[in-house]
Design a protein that fits this description.
The protein has about 280 residues and is α/β, with parallel strands linked by helices. The protein has helices at about 5-20, 45, 65-75, 95-105, 105-115, 135-140, 185-190, 200-215, 220-225, 235-245, 255-265; strands at about 25-30, 50-60, 80-85, 120-125, 145, 160, 165-170, 175. The chain contains 11 helices and 8 strands. Bound molecules: guanosine-5',3'-tetraphosphate.
Length: about 280
């Protein structure tokens, strides 16, 4: 399978990001907890150098908790502040402000020394499409937020959401582009549904998922579909089709229907909390 991304989008997105990043103190980078590395674009390290950095592993409700913990340790070791969360749930949003303040402690202390009190920390949310940037901004900013509008010295048209006296958030997230250097990255992004299914071969994608699950989470498919985990992956997809009565008109087994069902079950967490990627060994 071949995954592509168009350079035209990339250039425009990058230029926008370079502009926006000048305005902020803190980059809040959102990644998908099921594939924390494949869902991030490492160029953000260059773009966001000299800024405070916070990584949110979002959709943690769908990821394998033990592996998410390993990822937390991995990113912390690299010097990032890290939080895992479910951006749809508004619980825990209060503590996000505390983490932002913690991440920017140095700046706040420096301001205080200079006699500057209550100058809010300015943050921007960034991430590749579909990781939950808008969801997070909505949950975090809630209803009570006030848009602060244009300010002198700030690029015209930029809207800031004042979250408390301490934090202001740029209301439009920065869109990073996925990095497809490695085909496995493309595959993982496709599996979580971050690449339009229409341009993918769904049957092949389902077979790749079966292959991975059999090795990383043996027994999960057997339990969910009440089937034997056959050695042959096509046979296994066939067993899922039988078990779920995926048939086409002539009463023939419809593998594609089973493939869609399997992918959907995975993406919505019906197969359980599963991660597709482990941190690299140190
Ligand atoms: P983006 O701005 O980064 O592109 O992502 P967006 O917020 O639009 O979220 C993409 C999808 O991910 C949405 O689902 C959203 O509800 C879902 N989502 C966001 N955060 C979480 C999370 O922490 N856990 C889970 N399980 N899902 C999350 P959608 O199906 O595209 O839209 P909708 O059906 O929710 O409206």
């Amino acid at each position: 399978m071949n995954f592509q991304w168009y350079p035209g989008h990339m250039t425009k997105a990058k230029r926008q990001m370079q502009e926006d990043i000048k305005l902020i103190d803190l980059v809040v980078e959102i990644v998908d907890a099921r594939i924390p590395l494949s869902s991030r674009n490492p160029d953000i390290d260059e773009l966001g150098k000299n800024k405070y950095r916070l990584i949110f592993m979002n959709k943690a409700d769908l990821a394998d908790r033990k592996i998410t913990d390993k990822w937390s340790a991995y990113f912390k070791e690299k010097g990032y502040f890290v939080v895992s969360l479910d951006a749809r749930s508004k619980n825990g949003m209060k503590s996000i402000t505390d983490i932002i303040m913690e991440a920017c402690k140095e700046k706040i202390e420096r301001d205080l020394k200079r006699g500057i009190k209550n100058r809010p920390v300015r943050a921007m949310v960034v991430g590749i499409p579909n990781v939950g940037k808008s969801t997070f901004i909505n949950s975090y900013a809630g209803r009570a937020c006030a848009k602060t509008g244009n300010k002198p010295g700030v690029t015209k048209g930029k809207q800031w959401i004042r979250l408390s006296k301490n934090v202001e958030l740029l209301d439009t997230p920065g869109i990073l582009w996925p990095k497809f250097e490695d085909q496995m990255v493309g595959l993982r992004l496709a599996l979580i549904g971050s690449i339009k299914d229409e341009i993918l071969n769904i049957d092949e994608l389902a077979i790749e998922l079966i292959k991975y699950l059999k090795q990383a989470y043996p027994g999960v498919l057997a339990e969910r579909y009440a089937i034997e985990e056959a050695e042959d992956n096509i046979e296994l997809l066939c067993a899922i089709a039988k078990s779920r009565n995926c048939v086409s008109k002539g009463n023939e087994l419809d593998y594609s229907k089973a493939a869609v069902l399997l992918l959907d079950d995975f993406r919505t967490g019906k197969l359980g909390k599963l991660s597709l990627e482990q941190p690299p060994e140190a």
